[in-house]
Structure formats: C-alpha cells, structure tokens
Amino acid sequence: MPNFEVFYEGNLRCKAEHIQSGTTLLTDAPVDNQGKGESFSPTDLLAIALGTCMATVMGIEANNLKINLSGTQLHINKVMGILPRRVVEIKVEITIPDENFTESQKNKLIEIGINCPVAKSIHPDIYQNIKFNFVKK
Fold first, then answer.
1. Which of 42, 62, 119, 126 is most buried, taking the most CB atoms under 10 A from its CB?
2. 14-26 pLDDT, tens per residue?
3. How many Cα atoms sit within 13 Å of 66 on the Cβ side?
C-alpha cells in the first residue's frame, strides 16, 4: 500500500494525500513557470522538507538532551537556476531561543540538523546554505 496518493486536478494543480492521516495539500506551478502560484510548488516542498526535517531531528535531540527548542523559527529560501530549470540552492536560517545551552549542546543540535535525512538525500549539486542563530531570550 502506498504512503501517499497524488491526483492531478488540471491547470497545473495537484492534490496530495497522506494516506495514514488523510491530510491533504495542494501544489501549483509557480507564476514564473506557467502556473497560478496559489499554493506551494513542488520545488517549494523540497526546500520546506529540508527545513522541517532539520527542525524535527533537532527536536528529537533536544528531547534527549532535556532542553527546549520551542519558539525556534526557520526562514527558508529556494534559489532556482535555469538551463536546466532546477533548484540550485536552499538557504535555511534557523533562530533558536538560547536557554543557556552549553557549547556541547549547541554543537550537537547543529550536527544533527545539518545531517538530517533530507539533507543527506538532496543531490550534492544543490548547495545547502545553513545558518544557525542562538539568541538569548
């Protein structure tokens, strides 16, 4: 049984369903590629997958370290290239409220974040520009 189903609805729009939960999301082609840009594009989802994977595995590590990452915010930018049209860079800036984390804790969070499963699955030709900010509350 598949994990996901995707239905092409026409007009460059797809509806994806997560079968286990029934959650759906829409994708649209971006305006600069004949679309309406009314939802995430497939390449947007690639960039978002990187950021959310990083946050998730860092959250798992934070639980193991008995520290709190609530309030962490990620700003994600996708850079497109041409000929061929493809993602050439994903920029992720992660701002983490620093609750007096030790240098060791910070280093563990960074290491686990940059080595998340999505980061390791993205083709090496796509530059992952990752910046971590630990900000005192």
1. 62
2. 999 999 999 999 9
3. 0
Residue type at position 105: Q
Burial readout 97-108 (b: 16 or more C-beta within 10 A, e: otherwise): beeebeeebeeb
Domains along the chain?
A: 4-33 (no CATH), 46-136 (3.30.300.20)
| β 4-10/86-98 pair status | unpaired
- Under DSSP, the state recorded for 97 is E
Q: Are 95 and 73 in contact (CB under 8 A)?
A: yes
What is the rounded average pLDDT of the residues 109-124? 98
Q: Model-level pTM greater than 0.85?
A: yes
Helices and strands in the chain: count of H runs, count of E runs? 3, 6
- Structure token pair of residue 101: 């984390």
Element housing 16 (H / E): strand 13-18
The number of beta carbons lying within 10 Å of the beta carbon of residue 56 is 14
* Nearest one of 85, 56, 73 to 134, comparing CA atoms: 73
